Amino acid sequence: MIGVNGEAKVNNKKIRAQAIIEYVWLVIIVSLAIGAMTFYLNRKIEIRVRHLNEELNEASRGYGLI
């Protein structure tokens, strides 16, 4: 029911605004999490490639992997 001054419309707008703000925060948090995971995975891959490179260089010089 709408009150004398249209209170129901105001409350409905506040609830919708709060819901929108909560969704925006959710999107921000998920985006940050995905960004952090991407950074972590890229770093992990770079380290793995560097280690494989070192192993292959050692093997070609006759130091390892016999």
Secondary-structure map:
Elements: H1 7-61
From the structure above, extract its key features:
rod-shaped, mainly alpha, 66 residues
Give the radius of gyration.
28 Å
Order of helices and strands: H
Q: Tell me the total number of β-strands.
A: 0
Taking the alpha carbons of the first and last residues, their distance comes to: 83 Å
Mean pLDDT across every amino acid position: 85
Low-confidence stretches: none
Can you describe this structure?
With 66 residues, the protein is mainly α. Helix content is 83%, strand content 0%. The model has no long low-confidence stretch (mean pLDDT 85). It contains 1 helix and no strands. The termini are far apart.
Question: Would you kindly provide a brief summary of this structure?
Answer:
This protein has 66 residues and is mainly alpha-helical.
